[in-house]
Every structure is written in structure tokens, then in C-alpha cells.
């Protein structure tokens, strides 16, 4: 596979035009003894080019099926060849790219390869035989997990369940592929039985099938919820096709794919995906000529500073963590250690990796090592006078050209830059709490911020594994201008007598990670009240509330949320040291006074 004049192998109109030609050439070769599928690029096939496919998804269900099904017929022809076939996976093989691997008799991958079927994350499901071939290769349980989760999997994980047949160093990939072929031709490997097994019904009794699929549907439905049908639908397809042969099963899969692809859910999730891809493309363009950030620093430790330090170090960028008192330093280091400890407990990292990460977080009470820093994140208290004073001092401690950024959610970047000698080297870098979980970072362009400062900050955000968006300097930047009308609507519902717990449950049922009351507790009600005032002053026609709000009342009663243990909910540490949300009886009394 090698799409000419393209940096990547993706399944789009061009590849779909080429696949029939490839099949014809292979079928008509009378002297063939085996077929090896490989890529000349640094990857196998990334997957579908969703920007091209989205046009097809706007069509009626029967037209979507008519578009998707012919490719299945071509893959069936390749699978049915009377010679052994081997796919050499030299990198990413996802979605339709992995489905093209599954049609081969054997799959060999390099250690760095990533494989999987991520379609359910887009509200659809595999459409080129993925839900048919994967369970026949590795069992229904594993196939259900792979397809419903939409995850990318390592070569070792794929080998463990039988989704691939061998893992080998890149320099030996072709060699092992040829050995597989030779062993098949010489009768050492029973490739004919592999073909028969992949085309036959699943090897499950009726009782076993019922237990596997019904149990999985119940669990997945509970996780996905009623408004996210793709994961459960994919299980239903595997269940319906368990007693059928390959061709009958693919008919069911094609119908289900067309049904899901025509839904509003799929269209919305694809829109989100395309937006994310657009942001990455923009970020890549901005940072094309920007040097890597080799040494960072965060000014202001505590929970936020510790989160920034953890995120930077965990992705390999050394970072200084400075504060003016030892207690804050210890709190920041404790936050980083806690987050790494969770990773270690889940076996996401090794003890060596944890030690290595902690070793590149350097705590300090002085500016002694700041002359080597490329970029600083200021994360002190959300007070314009304090921030201005700290930034002015910081500017004298760093090398010429170092980039200074402020982690602020409400304060004007242009205003903060007024006392700086080199305001062109300054911009905003707004992280969201908790830093390690929230992917978005706002990079805020002040009136005098240079393109170089913006590019360096975007580069650092990407190095941290974040998704940066560049926004102009105005009250609320981007996210808070979207978020506070939502909080205001929540306040109006409270005024109308709606139970705050019910509001949270409804929003969570529709896919929000947490409802507005819980979210405000996590953000910090003191922070929320402060930001609400700024938004109301800046946009009085849209965001000023006529009456005293529940947020105002909570703030006056010093119920700040998780940070002091009580807000809308009460918080206690469980046995594992995790903050546990609990109902607080006093909340209803407070609401009744508003």
C-alpha cells in the first residue's frame, strides 16, 4: 500500500479506486504462490479519511450500504485467494486499515505498531468485516472489548489475544514475512484451515453465546448510556452473526453500519473529531519552524503547579517548580507523586519511569536556575496586582527571549503585559483543572504578544500532550464565554425549584462528565463566583443575572467545593485517598434562601 503524492496511507476515494485494480492484478496472476501485503510508508494504513467519508454519511441508509458493501466484496476476494496471504504491519493500522489486515491469513507487526477498530468513538462501527473477522480470530470476548472501547492497542496486546501472529523488529519484518510464506507453501503452517475458520460461524454453543453477548450488552449499555448506540449495536451485530458464515455476517454488519452512519449521533461525533483534527493541523502549522522547549518552569506550586509539573515531566520535558514557601512546594510535589502513584498502581508506568519523571521535576525556592529556562508558566493566585508583580520580577530572572505565560482564567493578558519590558515575549496559557485530565489549553494572544511567543507556547502545550487553541484576549477568552451561560441557566433552574441533583443526573446521562453543580465544586465556587462577576461586567446583556444566584450564596457561606470539602456536595477521602462526593443536607436549606 503506497498512495502516491500523499504523506500518509489513508482510505479515501483514491485508495478505494486503487483497491479494485490491486485485486484484479492479484487474481489474474497465474503464477502466484503467496501474497504479502505491506506498506512503503512509515505506517501501514492510518484508517479512513473521514473528511471524504462524511459526504457519504449524509445520504440515506440504503445508499450508504450500497457505497460500503462493494469494498467488502473485494476484501472477500483477497481472503478467498487459493494461496496464503500475510500482512506486514510496520506502524499504525487502524479502522479500515486494520480491517484490511484482518482479511489476510496471518499478521506480523513491529513492536511500535498500533492497531485497533476505533469506529465506535465516531458513533459508527466497523464496516469492512471487522466485527466478523476479529471475533473469529481472537474470540468474542476480546472482539467485544476491542470494538466497543474503540481503543488503539499495542502489538504485544494484539499478539496476546491472537489478533496478530508475531511481533518482530522492523529490520526483520520482511524476512519473517517471507518465512511465514515459505512455511505455508512447504506445509509447515496450515493456512487453509485459517481461511476456513475465518469464514465459518463462531465456535460458541447457544448457551455460551447468550451468556457472552447478553452480559456484554448489559455492561456496555450501562457505560455508554441510551444516547450512544454504536457500542451496543456492534455487540448485537456480532451476536446475530454468530451462527452465520462470513458472507451472511457481513450483510448484517453492512446494514448496521449504514444505520449508524445515518444517525445524528454519528454526524455530531464526526463533527467533533474533524474539529479536533483541524486544531491539530493548525497547531502543526503554527509550530512548523519552532524549536522544542527543552526546559520549562512553573511559578507557583500547590495543586495547579504540581499538575503542570507532572504533565510536563510525564511527557519528557524537564521543569522547575518554584514557590515562595516550602509548604506549597511539598503540596505540588505531593500532587505529582500522587498522580504518578496512580499510574504505577494501574501498571501504566514502571517504578523506573516514576522515578525518572520525578527526577526531572526540580523544586526550588529561588530563581537560581531560571537562566536556562525556555518557557515559564506563571500559576500564582488569580489577582491582577500579584500577577503583575510576580511577572515583572520573573522577567529579570530569565534569559533574553525566554517566553513568559500566565495561567489565568479571567485576567486580561494585555493588562498583565503593561509592566513588562518585553511584552512581545508574553502570552496566556490557561490550563483547566485537573490538569492531567483536561486536554484543552487556551493560548491567549495579548495585544503585543509576538507570533514567536504564541508558537512556542503552542509547541509546549503539544509537548505536554494537550490540545492548544489560540484565542484573542477578551473577558472569558473562549471556554468561559461558553461555560458561564451554562452556569447561568443552571442558576435559573435552581430559582425555578429544580433539584440540583436531578440536573446533574440529567446532564451526565446526556454525556457530560459531570453536571453543573458537581463541575462548579470541582472548578471551585470561589473561582466561579469571581469569574461570573467578570463575565457579567464584560457582557451585561448576555451574562448578568438579575437576582442573587446560588453561586453567590455558596461563596458567601465559604462553601468553595472540593478545595475545602463542601460546596453543593460534601467531600470526604475514601480508603484509597480519593475524594468521594456525598450528599450534604445543608445544601437544600441554603437553596431555599435564594
Described by the principal axes of the CA atoms, the overall outline is globular
Distance between the termini: 66 Å
How much strand?
A: 5-15%
Given the helix and strand composition, which structural class is it?
alpha/beta
Oligomer: single chain
Strand order of the largest sheet: 10-9-8-11-12-13-14-15
Tell me roughly what share of residues is in helical segments: 40-55%
Radius of gyration: 28 Å
Structural summary, described in words:
Helix content is 52%, strand content 12%. By secondary structure, it is an alpha/beta fold. Strands 10-9-8-11-12-13-14-15 form an 8-stranded mixed beta sheet, with helices on both faces. A 4-stranded parallel beta sheet has the order 1-2-4-7, sandwiched between helices. Strand 11, helix 17 and strand 12 (403-406) form a beta-alpha-beta unit. It is built from 26 helices and 17 strands.
Amino acid at each position: 500500500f503506497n498512495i502516491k503524492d500523499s504523506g500518509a496511507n489513508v482510505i479515501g476515494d483514491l485508495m478505494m479506486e486503487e483497491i479494485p485494480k490491486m485485486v484484479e492484478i492479484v487474481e489474474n496472476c497465474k503464477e502466484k504462490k503467496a501474497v504479502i501485503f505491506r506498506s512503503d510508508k512509515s505506517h501501514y494504513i492510518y484508517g479512513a479519511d473521514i473528511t471524504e467519508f462524511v459526504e457519504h454519511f449524509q445520504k440515506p441508509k440504503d445508499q450508504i450500504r450500497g457505497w460500503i458493501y462493494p469494498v467488502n466484496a473485494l476484501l472477500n476476494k483477497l481472503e478467498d485467494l487459493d494461496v496464503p496471504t500475510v500482512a506486514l504491519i510496520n506502524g499504525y493500522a487502524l479502522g479500515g486499515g486494520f480491517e484490511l489486515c484482518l482479511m489476510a491469513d496471518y499478521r506480523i507487526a513491529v513492536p511500535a505498531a498500533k492497531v485497533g477498530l476505533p469506529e465506535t468513538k465516531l458513533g459508527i462501527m466497523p464496516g469492512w468485516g471487522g466485527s466478523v473477522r476479529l471475533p473469529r480470530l481472537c474470540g468474542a470476548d476480546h472482539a467485544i472489548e476491542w470494538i466497543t472501547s474503540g481503543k488503539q492497542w499495542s502489538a504485544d496486546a494484539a499478539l496476546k489475544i491472537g489478533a496478530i501472529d508475531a511481533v518482530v523488529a522492523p529490520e526483520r519484518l520482511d524476512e519473517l514475512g517471507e518465512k511465514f510464506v515459505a512455511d505455508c507453501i512447504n506445509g509447515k503452517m496450515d493456512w487453509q484451515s485459517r481461511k476456513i475458520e475465518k469464514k465459518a460461524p463462531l465456535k460458541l454453543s447457544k448457551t455460551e453465546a447468550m451468556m457472552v453477548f447478553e452480559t456484554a450488552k448489559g455492561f456496555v449499555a450501562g457505560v455508554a448510556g441510551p444516547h450512544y448506540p454504536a457500542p451496543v449495536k456492534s455487540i448485537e451485530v456480532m451476536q446475530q452473526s454468530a451462527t452465520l458464515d462470513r458472507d451472511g455476517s457481513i450483510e448484517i454488519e453492512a446494514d448496521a453500519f449504514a444505520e449508524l452512519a445515518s444517525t445524528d449521533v454519528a454526524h455530531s461525533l464526526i463533527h467533533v473529531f474533524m474539529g479536533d483534527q483541524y486544531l491539530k493541523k493548525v497547531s502543526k502549522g503554527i509550530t512548523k519552524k519552532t524549536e522544542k522547549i527543552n526546559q520549562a518552569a512553573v511559578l507557583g506550586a500547590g495543586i495547579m503547579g504540581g499538575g503542570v509539573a507532572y504533565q510536563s515531566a510525564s511527557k519528557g520535558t524537564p521543569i522547575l517548580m518554584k514557590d515562595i514557601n516550602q509548604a506549597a512546594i511539598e503540596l505540588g510535589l505531593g500532587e505529582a507523586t500522587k498522580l504518578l502513584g496512580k499510574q504505577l498502581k494501574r501498571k501504566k508506568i514502571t517504578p523506573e519511569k516514576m522515578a525518572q519523571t520525578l527526577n526531572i521535576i526540580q523544586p526550588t525556592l529561588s530563581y537560581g536556575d531560571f537562566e536556562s529556562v525556555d518557557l515559564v508558566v506563571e500559576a500564582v493566585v488569580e489577582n491582577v496586582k500579584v500577577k503583575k508583580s510576580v511577572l515583572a520580577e520573573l522577567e529579570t530572572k530569565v534569559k533574553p527571549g525566554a517566553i513568559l505565560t500566565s495561567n489565568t482564567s479571567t485576567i486580561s493578558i494585555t493588562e498583565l503585559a503593561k509592566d513588562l519590558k518585553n511584552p512581545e515575549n508574553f502570552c496566556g496559557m490557561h490550563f483547566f483543572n485537573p490538569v492531567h485530565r483536561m486536554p484543552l489549553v487556551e493560548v491567549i494572544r495579548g495585544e503585543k504578544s509576538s507570533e514567536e511567543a504564541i508558537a512556542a507556547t503552542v509547541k509546549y502545550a503539544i509537548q505536554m500532550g494537550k490540545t492548544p487553541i489560540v484565542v484573542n484576549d477578551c473577558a472569558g477568552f473562549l471556554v468561559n464565554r461558553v461555560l458561564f451561560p451554562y452556569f447561568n441557566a443552571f442558576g435559573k433552574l435552581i430559582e425555578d425549584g429544580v433539584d440540583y441533583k436531578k440536573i446533574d443526573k440529567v446532564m451526565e446521562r446526556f454525556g457530560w462528565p459531570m453536571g453543573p453543580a458537581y463541575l462548579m465544586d470541582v472548578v471551585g465556587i470561589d473561582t466561579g463566583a469571581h469569574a461570573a462577576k467578570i463575565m457579567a461586567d464584560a457582557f451585561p446583556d448576555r451574562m448578568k443575572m438579575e437576582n442573587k444566584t446560588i453561586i453567590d450564596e455558596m461563596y458567601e457561606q465559604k462553601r468553595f467545593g472540593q478545595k475545602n470539602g463542601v460546596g453543593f456536595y460534601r467531600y470526604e477521602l475514601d480508603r484509597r485517598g480519593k475524594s468521594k462526593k456525598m450528599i450534604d443536607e445543608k445544601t437544600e436549606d441554603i437553596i431555599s434562601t435564594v
